[in-house]
Amino acid sequence: MARTIGITTADDIATGLVEGNQLVGKLRVHAHGSSHGSDDEPLLSLPPEGIAQRFAEEIRAVAEGETVTAIGVGIPGIVNCGFIEESPNLRQLKGAHMQDLVGAALRNFGITAPVYVYNDADVLAAGLAATHGNLDRFIRVWTLGNGVGFGVYPRREGVWEGGHVVVSLDPRERYCGCGGVGHLEGIMGQRAMRLRFLDMEPDEVFENAQKRDQRCVEFVKLWHRALAAATANSIHLAGPGKFFISGFNAKHLDLNLLHQYLHEMVKMSPLQSYVFEVVPDSDVNGVIGAAVSAAQNAAQ
Ligand SMILES: [Zn+2]
Questions:
Q1: From ligand 1's centre to the CA of 120, what distance in Å?
Q2: pTM of the predicted protein model
Q3: What is the pLDDT of residue 230?
Q4: Can you spell out the DSSP letters for 61-74?
Q5: Which single residue of 90, 200, 217, 292 could bond 204 by disulfide (Cβ 3.0 to 4.6 Å)?
Q6: Mean pLDDT score of the chain, rounded to an integer?
Q7: How does DSSP classify residue 251?
């Protein structure tokens, strides 16, 4: 069966060889620094050509000389036909044609398989659909990482920047990476939490909330209300259904609290059949989704 390679940058740079809907061998994972409190942010400091080169090196290492039929790349931001229209958390990619850059870097290594670039949350949604037997229905995924991503499968026309939906009318809510006021990511994103709590790391905020530190308790409530609000908005527009929640900050989620808030926000009975599923490991599913999406594109 044809083998493809998927690579994503959701939490780490994760790369894997995929056959069917499954990983072949081990996932190759490199932390890129920005998401786990490390000071060095290599991807953030690289120009688009440098990032493409890093991707090409990872892909070459995973291919190990094998022939692959397609390569799928997941990148945060608004991606249109391989072109990065906007990427609040990897700002230097704005305006870069990553599909061409990664393809060119790979050709230097003798790899000529077609490259397809997607939004990283969309490939995660595709991967979750593939690995959870949900390829026949509409699913959505929130990724709670450095930024907040929103992915849908199957892909639909539109922009789908769900991480930037407005969940607060408070003009002081201006911590979003894109600069917009009142955004979901401005409350839930790792970078936004660091800006809000200059004196503690996000993990400490959640720990201190457990210890009844009032400022942290209030914030953790806001954090859950924000996700409930964004989910309620999506339900009121596209209907109920399955919502996966992934990313390294999914570990802080209190599903009971989230359900309680969402129940307060969604009152029309036909809309109440929603389900949450937390899938902490976004890397494997993202890589599978990128590879499966590339295989589908290459077969068209
Ligand atoms: Zn925003």
A1: 16
A2: 0.88
A3: 98
A4: HHHTT---SEEEEE
A5: 200
A6: 92
A7: G
Distance from C-alpha of 134 to C-alpha of 212, rounded to nearest angstrom:
40
What distance in angstroms lies between residue 161's CA and the mean position of ligand 1's atoms?
A: 9
* CA 187–ligand 1 middle distance (angstroms): 10
Question: Residue 58 corresponds to which tokens in the numbers above?
Answer: 């990872």
Q: Determine the pLDDT at residue 11.
A: 65
Question: Which of the four pLDDT bands, split at 50, 70 and 90, describes residue 156?
Answer: confident
**AA identity, residue 233:** N
Q: How many residues does the chain have?
A: 300
What distance in Å separates the CA atoms of residue 121 and residue 76, rounded to the nearest whole number? 7
Report how far ligand 1's centroid is from the alpha carbon of 179 (Å): 6
* Residue 1 pLDDT grade (very low, low, confident, very high; cuts 50, 70, 90): low
Max intra-chain CA distance, the chain: 58
Q: What is the DSSP string of 156-221?
A: -SS---GGG-B----TT----TT--TTBHHHHHSHHHHHHH-TTS-HHHHHHHHHTT-HHHHHHHH
Closest listed residue to residue 16, CA positions, set 285, 295, 296, 297: 285
* CA 168 – CA 44 distance, rounded (Å): 28
**Helix, strand, coil share (%) of the chain residues, nearest 5:** 45, 20, 35
Work out the average pLDDT over 198-209. 97
Confidence of residue 132 (pLDDT cuts 50, 70, 90): confident
Cα–Cα distance for residue pair 194/37, rounded to 1 Å = 10
* Ligand 1 centroid – CA 81 distance (Å): 22
- State yes or no: pLDDT of 42 exceeds 80: no
Q: Are 55 and 102 in contact (CB under 8 A)?
A: yes
Distance 147 CA to ligand 1 centre (A): 9
Q: What is the pLDDT of residue 45?
A: 85
